[in-house]
Amino acid sequence: MGTYYIGADVHCNSIEMAIMNRGKLVKRYTIPTSISAAAGVLDSLSGKKYIAIEEGPMSGWLYRNLHQKVERFVVADPRRNKLISSDGDHDDKIDSAKLALLLAGGYLREVYHSDDERRVELKHWVSLYHDRVHDAVRHINKIRARCRMHGVTIPRKVLRQSEHRDVWLSQLKHPVLARQLLMLWIGYDATARQARMAKQQLIHLSQKYPIIGLWKQLPGIGTIRAVTIFAYLDTPWRFKRKNKLWKYCGIGLQRITSGTDKKGNPKPALLQLPRSANRVLKNAVLGAALTAINQTQSSFRDDYERMVRHGVIPSNARHTVARKLLTMMWGMWKRNCQFDPDEVEPVQQSVCVSS
Questions:
Q1: 270 pairs with which residues across the strands?
Q2: 64, 120 in Cβ contact below 8 A?
């Protein structure tokens, strides 16, 4: 019986596994990328087993199928593994051994993965929906750019409504441009149709989770934003403090300070937004805050206008409102309660200035 630390370098066709015991590399395996092969290696080891892989396309699939066979299954953030990416030689065998070494030392930053198949399915649909929307926007931008090459301004209704295209194209004096636009519109129509299909699936799946309906009572929160935040956060208990939640969503503040001034006092800390954040979550939360600010009768609008009057720059005020909105959603989720406008407290001035 022993304690084994296993580093696995995962690829689409093979997995390189390095196994450490008492600080020494004791075994290596090169196996096919399959659950049965990986489970066979884990079952052959008697004792406590800890395994680490780096985040990638197959990490969630491996985690859901293998985490019950080990004491702890760590999916590590590769951006923080400098020992693997930047130190010395670099190949699968070396990387898996370094991963096992970092796991044994407790130096890995873990990436959260859910073991609930239904939640994973919902997250995949959310990811697909946003991918299709971004692709549709990309096609629209290409159509606009192609028109600008010929000095042509295209009306918005022609861009998105197919019934106006034929009339507009028949009046176009550039036959080559017309043929190019017809080809680009084929791509746009396909991605727009796929986005609508994914949206219908999201609406259907969201009905299984009551908290999504409760969130939609909040200003600025619609079905897509509510499902997006729910799918990517998965559970409110991931975060011990609201500051951790804010940073994960890209709206929290990081404190950076170093050195002293001429009198030996610590230099003032620099507060900035995190660079590495979940972009989809950040866009959903900031978009909801902006919508809430633009509503005529909203406590969030009152908070925003009060902060701006007291000298807070608009971007900081928007982020403060976004943090307030996200904190309310987090509290509703933990308590499973409805939104009560009478319980909303105004943002304190000290909070405004610090953001």
A1: 256
A2: yes
Which pLDDT does position 162 carry in this prediction?
A: 81
Are 111 and 77 in contact by the 8 Å Cβ rule? The answer is yes
pLDDT (tens digit, 9 = 90+) per residue, 99-127? 999 999 988 989 999 989 999 999 999 99
Q: Are 227 and 122 in contact (CB under 8 A)?
A: yes
CA-closest candidate to residue 110, choices 62, 74, 73, 79: 74
Instruction: Tell me how far the alpha carbon of residue 280 is from its chain's centroid.
Output: 5
In the structure encoding, which two tokens stand for residue 341, read together? Answer: 């406008």
Q: Which residues pair with 16 in a beta bridge?
A: 9, 30
Q: Rounded to whole angstroms, how far apart are CA atoms 92 and 88?
A: 13
307 contacts 280 by C-beta, under 8 angstroms = no
Asked if residues 130 and 150 have their Cβ atoms less than 8 Å apart, the reply is no
For the entire predicted model, the pTM comes to 0.85
Q: Which helix (H) or strand (E) holds 3?
A: strand 2-10
Question: Looking at the predicted structure, is the pLDDT value of residue 348 above 70?
Answer: no
Encode pLDDT of 250-296 as tens digits.
998 877 777 777 777 777 777 778 777 889 999 999 999 999 999 98
Copy the structure tokens of residue 316: 């900081």
Rounded Cα–Cα distance for residues 10 and 31 (Å): 10
- Tally of CB atoms within 10 A around 292: 22
Whole-Å CA distances, 150 to 159, 168, 176: 16, 15, 10
Residue 219 · residue 300 · CB < 8 Å: yes
Rounded Cα distance between 310 and 299, Å, is: 17
Nearest to 189 by CA among 157, 160, 224: 160
Please tell me whether residue 196 adopts helix, strand or coil conformation.
helix
Distance CA 25, CA 7 (A): 11
Q: Which residue has the tokens 């709206």?
A: 251
For the purposes of burial, counting CB atoms within 10 Å of the CB of 199, is it exposed (0-12), middle (13-18) or buried (19 or more)? middle
